[in-house]
Structure formats: structure tokens, C-alpha cells
């Protein structure tokens, strides 16, 4: 199972999704992240947060969806469209779901407030990924329509 976490810049939320998924997923499952307009660098606070959680990020980089090393089975967009962001639309024949998360890199204020925003984005994505990984294996393989319903439901967790 290959999962693509997609947002515009591929520097923060999609990176967190990729790293957490790969940290928790069973053998043979893989997440990648990409952006429609990648920034070219990963957010330092996101990297520090993941390191503090014991989640490796070695080899990760900000990349375009035009150069994916694999074809995803599922695409998860993580832009918070309710906050005025426009999520990119992946144009492949794959299952799509939207797990909008506010971008903590846009928070302005004291360090404690910014850190709290990163913690919240991490907690939301982690809870959703854990819920996804807890789905029954037969659902993941056999019933795409029901899987789509479950993925969309999961997108409401913690948000």
C-alpha cells in the first residue's frame, strides 16, 4: 500500500504525514509526500518536532508531485481548505481523501503559540493515521467504496 500525502508546499503537514505514517505502518506499506508547488526545503520546526517524537526523517525532502518514485494507491490532501488554502488536485486514477489540517507554519506569535500549533497538527495527523492503520485489512483490499467512506470519516478526527 502506497500513500501520498499532498499539499501545496510539501514542507510541513505533508512531511509530518509521511514521516508519521512510515514510522507506524506495517512492513510493505509506504508513504511519500509531495507538493504541487514545493518550497524546496522542509520546515525546521516540523523536523525538530518529529525528531523530538523519535520519528526519523533522514532522506526526506520537499518534492514535486511531478517526480514521484511510485504510484500511490491513496492520495491524502492535507491543506486546510476551510482556511482559504487551495489544495492541489492529484490527477491520477487513485482513491482520494481530504484530511485538512491548519498550517502551523503560518502561525505568528510567541514561540509557545507556534509550538502548540505544530503539536496540534502532529496530534491530528497522528490520530488520523492511527485510525487508518486500524482499519480491517479486508476493507483495505476488497471494498474501495467503503474504504473511501472510512477515509473521509477519518478526515474529521481531531479537526
Automatic annotation (TrEMBL):
Q: Which domain of life is it from?
A: Bacteria
UniProt KW tRNA-binding keyword: no
Lineage of producing organism = Bacteria, Pseudomonadati, Pseudomonadota, Betaproteobacteria, Burkholderiales
**Keywords, alphabetical:** Arsenical resistance
> Where would I find the Phosphotyrosine protein phosphatase I domain in this sequence?
1-135
Quote the protein name from its UniProt record. Answer: Arsenate reductase ArsC
Keyword NADP applies:
no
Source organism per UniProt: Massilia norwichensis
